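Support reply, case 0932

Customer input (verbatim):
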Amino acid sequence: MPPKAPPSAVSALALDSAAAPAVNVAKLTGGTMGQAGSKEALSRLTQAMDELRALAVKPMLDRAVAALNAERHQEGAEWALKALHKDETSGFGWYLLAISRERAGDFASAITAYETALRLLPDHAEVANDLGRLAYRLGMKEHAEKLFRHFLVRYPNHHEGCNNLACTLRDRQAFGDAIELLRPAIVANPQVAMLWNTMGTVMAEQGDYANGEIFFREAVRLDPDFAKAVYNLGNARLSQGDAEEALLLCEKALTYPMSDDERQMMRLSLSTILIALGRIGEGWDVYESRLHPAHPDVTHFLVDAPAWSPGADLAGKSLLVVGEQGLGDEILFANLLPDVIEALGPHGRLTLAVEPRLVPLFQRSFPTAVVGAHATYLKAGHTYRTLPFVDDFKTFDLWTPMGSLLREFRRSTAAFPDRVGFMTPDPDRVAHWKRELEKAPDGVKVGLLWKSNIQNSARHRFFSPFDDWAPVLKAKGVSLINLQYGDCAAEIEQARRDYGVTIWTPPGIDLKQDLDDVAALCCAMDLVVGFSNATLNLGAACGAPTWLISVPGAWTRLGTPRYPWYPQARTFTTPAFGNWAPVMEAVGEALEAFAAEH
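Our regenerated output:
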C-alpha cells in the first residue's frame, strides 16, 4: 500500500457522481498531448532531481524513472513506493507514483498522487500538465482547464500546453477562444502535427468537416504515421458522405501503434463505418469493442451469470438482457426483442433491465417478460451498471447487453421486420391526449423535436440551429405541438415573435420524465417530426407516423436512404453537416402537402 497522502492532498476530483451511459457518437481524437510521464517530462524531472544529489531516496527515484522509460510501470511504482516509505514528503516520489498508477489504469490513486506531488512541487509545472491530462481523460474538464493554464504560466506559448488548453476550450464549445489560442501556436510551431489535428477537431466539432479536413490532411502530411489524424480524416470523409474512404483511413489508423483505449475507441468508430456501408453483420461484430475493458467509455456490468454468445440455443432458457448506451439506443435496440421472445419459446423466460423511466412501457410492450430498472454510477472515472431488482443471478442461464443481440438477430437489412411499432403505448392515455389536442390551434397535429438535451459538441453538430426551422414553422395548415424536453422557452418565444407561430405545449406532462405518457402523446399526433433524440425514438417505436431529419454518414440508416428500425419513418437527409437549408425547405414543403392531404 502507498503511504497515506497528507490531508491537504485529498483529491477534490475523485468524487463519485451519478452518470449516464455514453451516447454512441463517433468521437474525434484531438485530445491532449503527451502521455503520463512523457520522455521529455521525465528528462526534465531527472534534471531537477540531479540538483538534489544529497537526496537519500534519489537512487530509488532514478530506478523508477528508468523503469518508466522502459514502459515497466509496475516496476516504476514499486521503486516510487520504496522512496516514499523512506520520505513521505518527496514530491518526486509522489509524481513518479502518479505516472505509474495512471499508466496502470488506476486513475483514483493517480489523481491523489498527482495532487500531492503538485502541492509538494508547486514550481514543477509538468505535474499540473499531467494532472490536467488525467482530469481531462476522466471528463473533469473544468479542473483540467485550470491545470493547463497553470502549466502555461510557467511555460508561456508551450505548444503542448496550448494544445491541451485548446482541447478543453473546444469541449466547452468556446470554439473562438480555442482558435485564437491555436492560431499563433501553429504559426510558431508549424511542424507540430498535433496542433493541426486539434484545429481540425475544433472545425469539425462545429460541423465544418470540409475545413476540418484541410487541417487533418496537413497533420497527416507532416506525420504520415499520426494515427489520430488519419482516423479523424476518415471521420471527416464519412461525415461528408464518403464511407468508402472513411473505411480505408480508419483501417489504416488501426495499423499504427497506440494505447489500447484509443484502439478500442477507433474500433467502435470502425463498426459504425461498416454499418453505414451496409456491412451490417461485420459492423455488429466490431461493435463489441464498446465492451472491451480498455474502451474509454466502457460500462462495467455488475452481472454474475454466464454470457450469451451468437449461436447459443435460447429455447427454454432464462435470459437476462440489460439495456445500454443512451436512452434512445435502449428503445432502438428493443426492435429485436420480439425475435428474442420467439427464440426463447413458450418455456423460456426473458428478464429486461432498462432505464427506470422506461419500465412501464417495456412491461406493457413485452408482458411475458420480467422488467426492472438498472442503476448506473460513476466511480474513479469508470462507469458501472447494477441491477437492484435482481436478487439471485443464478436463476439466469445466460445474460447479455441488449446491443450484442444484434449480432444474431439483425445481421442484414432483410432481418429488420416490416412491422410498424414494436412497443405498446397506453391506449387510455392515447385517447386522453387525442382529446387534449383538440384544444390546440387548428390544423393537423405535428409534434416537433429540434434539439438534444445532451449539451456537448459531439451531439450539437447533429442538430440544426433553431433559426433554420423557419420553413417548417411557417408551413400552412399545421398545428405545431411541443414535444421537446428540457428548457425550450426561448425557442417557443422566438417562433411567436419572428414568425407569429404558436408552438402549443401540452398541459400536465413532464416531457423529460413521464416517458410512458410521452409515448402515448406521440401516438395521438398526426405526425412527429425531428432529429433522432429519445422522444422521436419513443414515438416511432410505438408506431407513430414519423419524419426523421438525418445527416450524412448516419450509421443508424444502415447504409440505406431510409430508417429500417421504423418502417413507417420517412427520412430527410441534409447534403452536408451545417448545410441545413435544403433539408428544412424540403421538410416544410412536404409538411404543407401532408396538411393538405389530411
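We compared this against your earlier run and they match. Two observations from our side: Residues 106 and 380 are 8 Å apart (CA to CA). The chain has a mean pLDDT of 88. Please reopen the case if you see a mismatch on your end.
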